[in-house]
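Journal club side-thread
Mid-discussion, someone asked how the predicted structure for our own chain would compare to the paper's figures. Pasting it here so we can look after the session.
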Amino acid sequence: MKLVDSVRNISKIPELRDRIVYTILLLVVYRVGSHITIPGVDASAVAAASQAPSNDLFGLFDLFVGGAFKRASVFALGIMPYISSAIIIQLLGAVTPYFQKLQKEGEEGRRKINQYTRYGTVVIAAMQAWGVSVSLASPSSFGQPIVPDPGLFFTISTVIMLTASTIFAMWLGERITERGIGNGISLLIMIGILARFPQSLVAEFQSVSMGNKNWIVEVVILAIMVAIVAGVVLLTVGTRRIPVQYAKRVVGRKVYGGSMQYIPMRINTAGVMPIIFAQSIMFVPSTIVSFFPESETMQQVASFIAYDSWGYALIFGLMIVFFTYFYTAIAFNPKDVADTMQRQGGFIPGVRPGKSTSDFIDNILTKITLPGAISLAIIAILPTILTKFGNVTPGFAHFFGGTSLLIIVGVALDTLQQVESHLLMRHYDGFMKSGKVRGRKA
């Protein structure tokens, strides 16, 4: 009943209703584009070849773009080149003085950084599009020839088409962020993942009905899946609150301060970004390998970094831990927080203002980030473990844990938070009884 009332309240707010409808329409456009085959590719041959399950890293890439890669769609690259470009720009911001200066220039600096990110997206998309064109022209990629007339013209047209489609997808994401609800780029990734869930669920139950799996074991697996989802939600919204006391100030006839407030420090401050960053980096070797389909050395490298290999799980887990600390350092600066508190007359009880406060916050941030980073890494490699030991189909294992589940939960909670904020600003109840989702700022 509470959910029904919240949905009814959404329909009463014209601005929020229009934003949701606008978001849905652009997501539909993105999904329609993922079913349009690249010119020059035999659509019937692609349809026949795409029925075979893919258990490599390209299979995971295909999951992120909602099956567009295996369908040889114009949106085969999805939004991942933009994510890769954003990673590179943020890495440059941590080590290059010029980009550090841009990050401190406010709106003008952000505008220039976004511009450089778009330029990088074009370059990365063109490189990956070239790799896709080589892969499509190679019969070994799909098990049968799917390009009737491979050649220079096909390569050039494919590169142009895929690059332009990636830029269009980036534009859709930016429009959703600006005029819709939620983060547009993240929503495009999430909708691509959810598009495969019904098919994977049906395949899993067909395996049970055919007697390949015991239904009791399947029920236990589904129960564990629910527990993992609950754990991911707790990891996403879990916070450590640091008390801050503000001294009383008399301004004219009014008294300010004198109250106790809290700094909410999330266990997973970086959110889903470490997963996306690490996953984007893991796509790079596979893209390079696709340029050399006849090389035995490259094929050995491909088998080592295959999605279901232990080598992939180890590298992927370590990269997640690294990017968790890296992105947390970018998103939360203890020194800036300590300086702001000192200017406003605030202090942490028992801790001296200034550097001592900064060190205190940094120490707590480091301690709570470690279990968060390890938990992210464990959840991310769960599909690999389940595929090897749990007799779970690869398609369904993606939703059991790993990147897919973390992205879905993180993006869903962020979108829910924005919807809830619109409701609270207009004096409507949110989705929770208290008016805000626990562990997240309203």
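Post-session note: Residues 438-442 have pLDDT under 50 and may be disordered.
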